[in-house]
Amino acid sequence: MEKILSVRGARENNLKNIDVEIPRDKLVVVTGVSGSGKSSLAFDTIYAEGQRRFLESMSSWAKRFVQQLKKPQVDFVSGLSPVVCIDQKTITKNPRSTVGTMTDILDYLRMLYASIGTPKCPVCEEPVEVWSLYRMMEHILSLPMGTEVEARVPVLKIYNEDYPYLLETIRASGYRNIRIDGKLQDIGNEIELDESQNYFIEVIADVFTVQKNIDKQIIASLEHANQIGAGLFSFHIISKITKNKRDEFYRACGCKQHFILSSEMHHGWFTFNDAAGACNTCSGLGTSMRVHTPLLVPDPSRSLRNGAFVKEALNCDKNTWGGRILESLASHYKFSLDTPFAKLKKSVVNILFYGTNGEKLPIVIPQGATQGQHHEGKEVSYRGIAIDIEHKYNWYRKYGEASNWSEEYYRKIMVEQPCPDCKGTRLKKQRCLVTIDNKNIYQIGEMPLEELHSFIQNIKTEDKHLQILQTIQREIIGRLDTLINIGLNYLNLNRRSATLSGGESQRIRLSSQIGSGLMGMLYVLDEPSIGLHAKDNAKMIKTLRHLRDIGNTVIVVEHDEDTIRAADYIVEVGPGPGVHGGEIVMSGTVSKMIKDNNSITGLFLSGKKQISYPKKRNKGNGKHLEIKGAQHNNLDNLDIKIPLGNFTCITGASGSGKSSLIHETLYKKLYSLKYDSRVLSGKHTKFSGHEHVDSVIHIDQSPIGRTSRSNPATYIGFYDNIRKLFASTDTAKEKGYSASQFSFNVKGGRCEECKGEGMITTKLAFMPDVETTCPNCKGKRYNEDTLSVTYKDKNIFDVLEMSIEKGVAFFEDNKLIAKKLSVLNDLGLGYLTIGHPATILSGGEAQRVKLAAELAKSKRGKHNLYIFDEPTTGLHFADIQKLLDCLRGFVDKGHSVIVIEHNLDVIKTADYIIDLGPEGGENGGRIMAKGTPEQIAKQKKSHTGQFLAKLLK
Amino acid sequence: MSENMEQKCQRFQKALDIFIERVEKDKWIQAVVLIGEISPQTIWSKEHLFLWVIEVDGVTKRRKSDGGDERLFRTYTEEDINIVIELIPRTRFKLMVEGNSRTAFTHNFFAKRILVHSKDSSIDRWFQQAHQLATSDQETSLMIATTWVIQPLKYIDQLIHTKKDIELARQELLGVAHSLAAIEIILRGEVYEHQPIYKAIDYNPQLFATVYQEILGRQRSMTKLKKALQAVREYLEQNHQHYLRPIIKFYQNKPHIVPLSQICDSFAHTQIYPWHIVCVCEWLCNKGFLEKISLPIRITKKSITDVEEPAYQVNK
Q: Which phi and psi angles does B180 have, rounded to 5°?
């Protein structure tokens, strides 16, 4: 077998017809400055070609069902094997996806619960036995002929509904007789029940008279009853029978008090993604929405008559019910509809939101109204706008009537809260009563993976279930081992996927690959070290080596020094970004790289070049943000002072509580105080110092939206200004062109042949789509009339093709455009063109475009707080220096910067460090050290301190 | 020689007996229900027997000839009389009897059927229970029957005062009398049957003399018609608290305005449909018990403009 993966004539994106040979079955790192073409080589060439060839091997029939990939711009790639790509972009926002579902551990756990779980009686919570319907049938048939047995099914009250509703539901399911606390009742009769009381309600599913040939009848009847009773049954003899026989029957039949038995459990019972398991109220989401009243009044300075309420919530037109009720309330409670909402009395605001509590008031028709006069003088009570919305929301949810529009509207005015029925467990109450070692599936999903590991390992069961247990245990333990080994020990299975960082999500997918145990594969990974503390990084490297050792080729696009040093082979792409890159600077071992003076990475590795750090630390402006009693997630009642006017770095092991402290508590609290009160911050007892901050800006790792129609100019928003500039030229005015003429997204000025894309895509049934340059505009995206308009002798297409670097000078007369271009330029993106399609931006470039978009916003105050979550994602050593210069620039202007970071080169340049730890999950959430990097380096109990000490020597 | 009705009855009975005798030996058949009855009064138009045959669950598979309908029909023959049977699995039959026997009219559906064979005491019990009208079901039935009285009253007024069509008004009033008869039957917890008017005349001779017999008589006059209408109105006036109890009870616990859609939602599991509710609410508004207002609603889930729907509240 060929031991070399050989790429010939690669020309994808900025690659300059390069040839490269990569050894197989090795750990290979592709590195280089951001935008140099690393991803173009690893993902767009090697991975794309491997995947394309695999799909090509399918039959034409099968090809119709999968999207075919375009052949990359490469002459030849040899030595390819099945290829798997694990990038950071695939982060699902689906609220039903959790760590448990992503890793398949939940699937095994639910099988475990279905096989060996112990159900409990919903009334006395005594363990009950699991019997198959056949066993129940046999037990009934063991009674003497002619014995009458009543089969009952316990039911629980439906959340937020009254007892009559439950009874009607039972009736609609085909059952007329029930027992309430043991007393027989006919639902056809009126049954008075106290809503505040809890009753033990059992539906009488059937009455069987023991005789021959009723086995099928019993099974069919019980199967049907299973639908209403969530799998629990009890059987009661209702005819005369000897005491011995009776005792014998009941002895083995369910809990002692209620004789409840569980039917065989199904794995669907233990997942919130199956109707059999999902909570009825939230359908398995674990959350519900409630009105957050401040959101109903976006601008409290407006009066009610002037539309203080969100338009969709209450129409204030005088000819509508909304107008009439407001007028009536104002007249009755003596307030003016012209008073700004903020100045209304608290009692009035209460009535508006929560109603008149049954008190009636006469309807007053607003002056000038032409409709509704027939209502005048009628006395009505008012339910309140918030109650009304919640009622409608529940109605929509109950009947599946929600539409995109209504969902969007409700999201605008409501906030998420744990489902009041299941309290966030997502499961039906009956399912949570099934336990293994006294823990239900939700409770073990809350355990950090390490704790879960020991829990699973220590499960004991009866001999008959031992084989099942061992099989499932093996699968779960294998997966947990991998997750723990790659530093994800702090996660738990209930954690929503949408809340994971790109790095965490990538490592989870990596763990499932390792779990597959395949060999001969080619794995392509994108910066797996992101989000990992230096101490966890070693585990990650060990995992990559393991993947290699079992017979795979691992190609990693990476900037991390430890990973580069751990590689068997390194390919450096460069030397510069964009057009200045696209060549192979060097390929070989680490020692070769260190000796190679052309290799910028080698220069950093050898120490010939390094990121400098200030010898004197900035002490800040003497003001602080102070949080007391922070308890969100694993935070251990922290009291913390964060200095303002300097560059603070938050460090700590993955899962130690950095994001809980900074994002969930600090940022959300500031955001709610400054902008949007519906944002609920993490739990804390006191927060002060917010008056020292004018604005808060948070820049996280979430990827920017990428379509071929978006580019740096549209993303940051200065393309509108460029279009307006063109529209203000004399030629444009003569021709009557507005700014929209210069948009490639709308009809008018764009080329209609290609709809402003510049390329025409031809779809072929089972072959990849073919892209050709538009024959009409020749790729210029606009029609000739539009292109005839010029600004400083350049038409709009020329501007799009202009590099950002040149753009700064070209637009020097226009301050706004020049400022935004210079932010991009300052971040090292000068080589990109203004119209560079977002689809071909590298990860690091996209990250910096996003950064530039935030930094370019001009509305900020004198003292802003910038919060960055791992800003070095996708950045090479050389780019990190540029980023640090930019951050330092903010501090110099009097702003404050807080950075959550693992990169030691960033940490060492900080003015102040807060180190959390010592570990992740329950073992984290405490402050290990705080102070300048020099002070931290002296703290032996701080992991970060130990690593810093080596660096600051 | 043509047979008389007695002989025809005997022939049909014999066919039924033979069929029952055969299925008694069939362990998979739980019960047989005769639809209709074999009597000289009803046999004259019969061509075949129609039975429900209750089988043990999960036995019979569908055939192609059964088509897309969920129900399975088969035709057999005994004594040259065709016996059309509907084959019903036991569990489905239970749902038919217990789940759907909601009102006097569906009770009647079972009352007119005779359990001619049963090996399953549960089926005997269901049948027995289906013949008893439960109080809540009775209230529902009463209210539905009352809407059949309320609804035509306005139309009759219009026929008299606007169209001056006394004859049509008379016919409509006879229809009202039949609905009143249904009320009288339900009121006594009995099963609603064909021609309830005869029983109702016995139960409330004074009312039916005015609203039925007088109107039906040869001497027709506007005075009689108005007197009958007046009697109906007084009857409703005196009894509406009882007859319209489901809606009145619903409102007693509601301190605020309730839109029609919400009331309908509360009765979604019953056989009280929106038009029954509107009819009752409007009548209660006329009587001053309820007050009608309107509240905004959107027609479709995608609509963003409001229309108004009737809403009612207790008029204190």
A: -60, -35
Provide the whole-model pTM.
Answer: 0.74
**What is the pLDDT confidence band of residue B119, given thresholds at 50, 70 and 90?**
confident
Do B188 and B109 lie in a common domain?
A: no
Tokens of A799: 């501007």
pLDDT digits (tens, 9 = 90+) for B234-256: 999 999 999 999 999 888 878 78
Does any CB of chain A come closer than 8 Å to the CB of residue B64?
no
Is residue B20 scored above 90 in pLDDT? Answer: yes
Residues A876, A35: contact at Cβ < 8 Å?
no
Looking at the fold, whether B19 and B131 belong to one and the same domain comes out as yes
Q: Check whether residue B12 and residue B90 sit in a common domain.
A: yes
Helix (H, G, I), strand (E, B) or coil at A460: coil
Asked if residue B1 has pLDDT above 50, the reply is: no
Nearest CA-CA distance, residue B92 and chain A, Å: 9
Domain shared by B274 and B189, yes or no: no
B30, B58, B256 member nearest A358 (Cβ)? B256
Q: Which residues of chain A are within 8 Å of residue B27 when distances are taken between CB atoms?
A: 212-213
Last residue of a domain, one of B243, B259, B279: B243
Q: Regarding predicted confidence, which is higher, B221 or A856?
A: B221
Answer yes or no: do B34 and B63 share one domain. yes
Interface mutation target, options B23, B24, B54, B91, chain A, most CBs of A under 10 Å:
B91
Q: Do B19 and B120 share a domain, yes or no?
A: yes
Q: Quote the distance between the C-alpha of residue A81 and its chain's center.
A: 33
Within 160-219 of B, beta carbons closer than 8 Å to A belong to: none
Query: Distance (Å, rounded) from C-alpha A708 to C-alpha A840?
Result: 9
What CATH number corresponds to the domain at position B257?
1.10.10
Chain A residues touching B301 at Cβ < 8 A? 396, 401-403, 406
Total domains, chain B? 3
Sort strands A232-237 and A148-155 into parallel, antiparallel or unpaired: antiparallel
Instruction: Say which of A212, A320, A383 has its CB closest to residue B296.
Output: A320
Structural domain range at position B264: 246-314
Are B306 and A395 in contact (CB < 8 Å)? no
Domain boundary residue, one of B217, B243, B269: B243
Interface A–B counts its CB contacts (< 8 A) at: 124
Q: Which two tokens stand for residue A491?
A: 């996660």
Long-range contacts of B190-195 (CB under 8 A, 24+ apart): B190/B133, B191/B104, B191/B107, B191/B108, B191/B111, B191/B131, B191/B133, B192/B104, B192/B105, B192/B107, B192/B108, B192/B141, B193/B108, B193/B111, B193/B112
Of B308, B246, B238, B252, whose CA–CA distance to B279 is shortest?
Answer: B246
Contacts of residue A380 in chain B, CB cutoff 8 Å? 256-257, 293, 313
Tokens of B258: 């309730």
Q: How far apart are CA A290 and CA A465, in angstroms?
A: 45
Please give the ipTM for the structure prediction. 0.77
Same domain membership, residue B251 and residue B239: no
Chain B, nearest residue to A216 by Cα: B57
Q: Are A151 and A225 in contact (CB under 8 A)?
A: yes
